[in-house]
Amino acid sequence: MILVDTCVLSEAFRKMDKTSRYSKQIDSFKQMIMDDWPIGLPGIVLQEFLTGFKTEKKFEKARNVLSGFPVVLAESEDHVLASRIRSMCLSKGISVHGIDCLIASTSINRNYRLLTFDQDFQSIARVCHLKLFQLDS
Q1: pTM of the full predicted structure?
Q2: Secondary structure letter of residue 132 according to DSSP
Q3: pLDDT tens digit string along 69-92?
């Protein structure tokens, strides 16, 4: 399975701007959805993406769009690994957010790949076994 990070969802479903520097990757991502690739969302990504909609109508529309994706919930082992990943990063002078470490650990513990545009995950992947999924550009 390929887990999708919040930044990809934001580019695909909020911005919808053809001038985005990720427009070709977003086109590839949308084609993956239409081709029924195994795509899932970490629970925290679902929460992050749904946060901040200004109207209930927009919130419900976004929620409906995401309802077709399986949600992968973090378990105790994911939180433990996330803390280890953050500590490993910090020991190498790499500053990363705890939520990003949780997204990474959720991917690692299930042997999934992560689709993201966030460069922090490149740094995380250098200190642990995070597998990143690259879209055609």
Answers
A1: 0.92
A2: E
A3: 999 999 999 999 999 999 999 999
